[in-house]
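re: ur question from earlier - yeah i can do the single chain one, its not a big deal. heres the input i used so u can compare w yours
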Amino acid sequence: MAMFESGWEDKDGLKFFMRGWEPVKKPKALVCLIHGLGEHIGRYGHVGEAFTRAGYALVGFDLREHGKSGGPRGFIPSYAALMADSSVVEADYRTSRHANRGGKSNGPGCAGLHSIVKIGDRRNFA
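and the output i got, formated as tokens:
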């Protein structure tokens, strides 16, 4: 298993922190984890280990205003902003690390709803 950290900056200059876990062999698929409100991706190391043991790559990021990502704590400008942020991390991972792999989106609490909306919004999401 390999853990990696990365990040990006949005068009407004807000910095985001991303962490991922990959199996030694080429992953079966990519799983995007979206944490809940008041959490951060650092809490999910055990989940990354479990997914990689099963042959999957897991990637997630600290939502805006959470963990190591920027922004004023406790303020999220809109649900659309959260949706756009998660699309960036998924696209970045697929482009830079494992293009053309199937994927799933998963998350606890309100992130679970975010995942369902995201999956429903992606007609080509395998």
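Helices lie at 45-53, 79-96, 109-121. not sure if urs matches, ping me
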